[in-house]
Amino acid sequence: MRQVERERWSASELAHGVPAGHAVLSLTDVKGEHAPPLLVDLRG
What we know:
Layout: E1 2-3, H1 11-17, E2 22-25, E3 38-41
Antiparallel strand pairs: 1-3, 2-3
């Protein structure tokens, strides 16, 4: 897993910048506070 220091990503940046087999997760806790986006390898 790799943490990326960016607040916002455009749809185009995500479509072209995320490697195949990966996903970017943006998490928010129950208080509405955002965690930094996470790049997750879905290939197992």
